[in-house]
Structure formats: C-alpha cells, structure tokens
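Holo prediction. Input below; ligand is heme C.
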Amino acid sequence: MFDLIGRLHPLLVHLPIGILLLAILFEWLPKRKKYRYLKRSIHPILLVGSGTAIFSCLTGYMLSQSGEYESDIVGWHQWMAISLTVYSLGYAWMRTEKGFKSFHKAFSVVLLILLLITGHLGGSLTHGEDYLTAGLTSGSSIDISEVNLQEAVFYDDLVKPILEDKCYGCHGTSKQKGKLRLDEPQHILKGGKDGIVVVAGKIDESELVDRMLLPLDDEDHMPPKEKKQLTEKEIEILKTWIASGADFKKSVKDAGQLATLEKIISSEKSFSISDVPSDEIQAADQTALNELQKMGVVIIPVAANSNYLSANLINASSLDSAIDLLIKVKEQLVWLKTGDQPVTDNHLIKIGGLTQLTRINLDRSQITDAGLTNLKSLASLIYLNLNNTKISAIGFSNLSSLKLQSLYLYGTSIKAEEVALVKKILPATNIEIGNLQVPFLVSDTTEAKSARPK
Ligand code: HEC
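Structure of the complex:
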C-alpha cells in the first residue's frame, strides 16, 4: 500500500503545480479591470495548492523509500519541494497582511521559479537526467556494424553502448530499479537486490542474460515489454562478452573473440533452407573454382555435401575478373556477398546474369537506381541487402517481378515514408530500414509487423 501511494507521486504532483500556477496567473491577470474580482480567490487557491503540495511531499517521501532512486537529485528535489511548500504557505499568509501589498507580484515570481526548479528536478528523476535534451539527441543508439572490431575494446565499444541504449533508463544514475545499476563496472559487478547479475564465463548463471532470454511476456523479462528491446545481435554480443570472462579492459582481440564477433555482426537473420535450391546440381568447374580462390574470392559450399556455392568478394584482388569468373560457376552460385568492394552499375549487368542467386549482399557498394534494374532477371532472388548504398525508392520500379522475402535498406536515403512506395512494388517483401522501435525478434514477429510502416 505504502508502495502504491508512493508510485502515484509522479501523477499527484501535477495537482499542486496546476493549482499554484493558477494562483500566479490570478496575481497578474487583474492588471485588466474586468479581472479585478479574481484577486479575492488567490488566497484560497494558495491554501489548496499548499495542501496538495504537503500531500505530494508525503507521497514523494514514500517513493524515495522504495530504494529505486539513489541519486543526489532526490535530495535536491526533496528540499526544493519542502521549501516550495513552506513558501507557498507563507505567501498565502502574507497575502492576508496589508503591509505586503506591493510585494504580491514579486512573491508570485519567486513561487514560479521554485515551481520550475522543483518540477525540473522531479522530471529528471522520472524521465532521466537528459529528458529535456533527449529528443534532440535521439538516434544516438549505436550502430554496431560501424565498430572497428580490430581495435575495439569489448566493454567500452560494444557492451557499454548497448547497456546505455537499452538499460540505463532504469538502471543508471537516476533510477536503480531492482537496486541495480549497470552504468559503471563496479555497479555491474555489485549486482542488484537479488545479488550478482554477471558471473564471468558463465552465461547460464548470469541473471542479466537470463532476464534477456525470458519470453517477452514474462514479467521478469528485460528490458520490460513496453520498452525498446535488445536485438538478436545485441543479445549475442552481451552473451559473448560474459562467456569470454566479462572483462572491462580487454580488446575484442585480446579476449579472443574477434572471429565470433565478426560473425555476429555480419550475420543477418539466420539462413533458411529455402535459400538453397532443392534440386541436385553437378559440381562446379574445378578450374574456375581454383582461379577464384587464387584471386582471393572465398568460394565455399553453402552446406556440407552440397554443390551449391556461396561467394564472398571481400578479399578479391580484382573485382572485374572475379565477377567474370563467377559467370563460369553461375549454375551453382546461390549466395553472393560483395563485401565492401566498389561494385558499380556496370558490374550489376553481369551480376544480373548469375541467374541462380537467391541471396545478394551489396552492402556499401557504389550501385545506383539505374543499375538496380539489372537484377530483375534474378527469378530466385529472395534476399537483397542494399544497406549503405545510394539506392532510392525509384530504383525498384522495374523489380516488381522479384519474389524477394527480405530487403535491407539500412543507411540508404530511403525514409520510413518512402518505404510505402517500395512496398507497393514488392508487397510481399519484409523491408528493413533500421531505426524502428521494435526489433525483429523471432518471438516478436506479430508486434514487429504492426510496427513496420505499411
Ligand atoms: C523500464 C525500466 C527498465 C529497463 C529499461 C530495464 N530494466 Fe531491468 N529491471 C527493471 C525493474 C522494475 C526491475 C525489478 C524487477 C524485480 O523486482 O524483479 C529490474 C530488474 C532487473 C534485474 C534483476 C536485478 C535483481 O537483482 O533483482 C536485472 C538483471 C535487470 N533488470 C537487467 C536489465 C537489463 C540488462 C536491461 C537492459 C537490457 C534492463 N534491465 C532494462 C526495470 C527496467
């Protein structure tokens, strides 16, 4: 009960704020004759306002006892609120004394200042210290794929930004839900009201991981259901960090996690079987394969015992010759990743001839709308990644024959509003442009669908 009344505090404080503001307003309105009569009501309004302020102080005190608010701001807010309450009572009394008449307006200004300060401190407690400026800096949530893994410090560059984005709001400087702070190494190690939350090297004993993996509907799930959720990649990163010893200083490399993280960060949704054709195919020409390999192209079977191939051009020494060679294995080639190569519209003409492709990743290539048209010949294509390219919504005009299931458009100029245009051409395609509130967790597909712009 105590707890419940405390929790009503953020709501109840609006009463004294509203009522006292009314008193201030009435102090100034009678400058105009027709509002003179309002003057008489200022005294009772101040009394009612003070009364509700006293009540708010009590509920605020109860809330502060919940242990969820530890910051210095609580103390400041509390003393400002008490001063405000005492002051408004004093102000009410002074209004009955004839001698202070010429000071009434000045009193009201002081009351306004006290209200603003107390209110702002309270707001900082409920919404976080940066709540006034938060709207200005939104979009600050990290893009993990931008992190340079070769040099990254595991905690500072990967773990901390995730916790900051998804957890600090309730487990940071201004609030400590469950008596847990996640904003500094020593706090993370200390744990919450139920004890330690991170056990180095042991994911299954770490409460922090447990909570993230609970079903979304479980009331212990973190972050709580209505809040921005962790993405699959973020969960994998946090798990890998704890599994590798939860070290706060080591680089990703020194923690021995470079390969694992590269895999996590470069992976999109896990491949489905439908990405690989079901019919048998004879093995690709061995000389062509050897030449491709010599050129630095990573060309490997998509599965054990399969003749179907995936190619990654990331280390290819010559892009032009690599693409020419790929044509020789086009019957087997189903997945293609151009891996940061400067692929242009001209290359797309040839890629359009790789007719068995089911997945193409053109992330960071130099292609434009004009070149994209060449992909219309790829009847089996179900996955297309155009992240960080110059493609616009217009580029898709000729692609309505594609049977795409997933289309990635992160980091392009295509905005949420324009997704509708693309959607018209490709109605059955999942389009992901990033910056959506709801991540696409498997357990979460219905919610994710409704959040996706139509
Ligand atoms: C909207 C607020 C909110 C956000 C955001 C949030 N939590 Fe929590 N968290 C809570 C509340 C409330 C509790 C206390 C629940 C309870 O008493 O069981 C809690 C408790 C916990 C606990 C258990 C602490 C203990 O010892 O009982 C862990 C671990 C935890 N949160 C982890 C996280 C992580 C990790 C994130 C970010 C990915 C996160 N939380 C984000 C509200 C939040």
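Residues 134-141, 269-273, 436-454 have pLDDT under 50 and may be disordered. That is the main takeaway for now.
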